[in-house]
Amino acid sequence: MYFKSNVLTITILSLINGLFAWKYASRANNDLLLILSVLISITLPFSLYFAYLYKHNTVAQKILNSGKFTLLLLAGIIICSAAFYLYYPQELLRVDRYEMIRLFWENFLSQKCPYCPRSEGTNIPGPFPFYFFAAFPFYLIGEIGLYSILGFLLFAGIILKTKSISTALKNTIFLLFVTSPAVLFELFCRSTNLLNSTLLLFCCILISRVNLSTWKQLITIGIVTGFVMSTRSFSFLIFAMAFIYTYKKLVFNWKVFVTSFTALLTFLLTFIPVIIICGESFREYNPFSVQAVFAPPFLTVAVAVSSCVIVYFLRSIHNFSTICGYGLFILTLGYSLSLIALEGFREAIFSSSVDISYFCFAIPFVLYGLGRVEEKELILSQTE
User: Fold this and answer.
1) Residue 106's pLDDT is what?
2) Pair 64, 55: CB distance under 8 Å
3) At what angle do helices 145-160 and 181-188 cross, to 10 degrees?
4) End-to-end CA distance of the chain
5) 211 near 190, Cβ under 8 Å?
6) Model pLDDT, residue 19
7) Are 194 and 363 spatial neighbours (Cβ–Cβ below 8 Å)?
8) Rounded Cα gap, residues 353 and 342, in angstroms
9) Separation CA 20–CA 312 (nearest Å)
10) Cα(352)–Cα(370) distance, rounded to whole angstroms?
11) What is the pLDDT of residue 280?
């Protein structure tokens, strides 16, 4: 069962990798390069995972079990990202993450509605306010790429601090992470989707581990949850799943109610500075109008209901993470297919009507979920 579900995880990662390789390698107008890029991107995750499963090669064993290799891998990707930032200014990027952060804060600091477009008919900032508040230091520094690196470091910290999985599996996860064209796109193009998703994963792990036994814990978890909710709309679904997974039948307990109320109140409070500045303009220009149309409503409801039912019966945080990743992948796939049905595949993908970087939301969850095999082995060894 675990083997099959992990192969499904690797398949999803391969599909995401192949899509990114196809879209961006095609810009080189070289058919051989395009074919090789797509083939390598699709097959490499399977090769890495099976190399971990069947460690017959002594050299591979030594590499995967080496803590020094972990440090070299992480340091190497950070150095490469920083070098790219120095070489390629963020102003030249065609990805609009930086532009939306800059637009939000230029409007905000000029006492204009932060969600108003630069000119009529152009894009407006889509995420909720805390997304931009957290990005403010990097806006001031003038390098939003550091925001992306922060997400990479947070994911690395989560994996390194997970005691239930071996060094070999940690290195395998890191290799799957840093060799993914989707992840490299996120880092080099200063995108922020991985940071959003990894922050959400971190909070879910925190909720599963903290016993809500004191008022301090109730309020703290509620505030942290509320801030993270104020980034992207899909966080509401993930947090609902996290509370159902953690508390089961006690999900309607007064402690969970207080934490949820604090989270919702914190979420609403993050909008106050924006609404004060926007006034009546907030009715026309707001993030809800952008995020409400992410996926077809019937699919959103189906994924939400089925995911909440499934996680109720789960006992492993890694299994929970996997279901979250699958749900995010299905929602993004539904969003993509609905636009492809309207515009055609080539127009939707290559003209960027479909933002394929949304598939990156699923990556931290599905990779963290790979730890369920060794978590199961640890539980069995402890019961013997």
Assistant:
1) 92
2) yes
3) 130
4) 21
5) no
6) 92
7) yes
8) 10
9) 34
10) 31
11) 86
Query: CA–CA distance from 126 to each of 44, 116, 270, 337 (Å)?
Result: 34, 11, 15, 21
In single-letter form, the type of residue at position 297 comes to: P
Q: How far is CA 371 from CA 20, 48, 320, 366, in A?
A: 25, 15, 11, 10
Neighbour tally for 102: CB within 10 Å: 19
Q: What is 354-371 written as a DSSP string?
A: S-GGGGGGGHHHHHHHTT
Helix (H) or strand (E) holding 332: helix 317-343
- Residue 57 exposed, middle or buried by CB count within 10 Å (0-12, 13-18, 19+): exposed
What does the angle CA 359 – CA 235 – CA 314 come to, to the nearest 5 degrees? 90
H or E stretch including 245?
helix 234-247
Please tell me the distance from the alpha carbon of residue 279 to that of residue 359, in angstroms, as a whole number: 34
Q: Is the distance from CB of 128 to CB of 168 less than 8 angstroms?
A: no
Q: What is the pLDDT of residue 382?
A: 40
E strand map for 67-134: none
Nearest CA to 260 out of 282, 283, 236 is that of 236
List the one residue out of 93, 203, 107 whose CA is nearest residue 148: 93
Q: Let me know: does 215 contact 250? Beta carbons within 8 Å.
A: no
* Alpha-carbon distances, residue 368 vs 134, 157, 236 (angstroms): 24, 12, 20
pTM, two decimals, is 0.91
Please, what is the Cα angle at 13 between 9 and 17, to 5 degrees?
170
pLDDT of residue 3: 55
> Taking a C-beta distance cutoff of 8 angstroms, is the pair 179, 49 a contact?
no
Compute the radius of gyration of the chain from its Cα atoms. 21
Q: Per-residue pLDDT tens for 12-67?
A: 999 999 999 998 888 888 888 889 999 999 999 999 988 888 765 667 777 888 87
Sign of the CA dihedral with 186 first, then 191, 197, and 198 last: positive
Calpha distance 166→162 (Å, rounded): 9
pLDDT band at 378 (very low <50, low <70, confident <90, very high): very low
Structure tokens given for 366: 């599905």
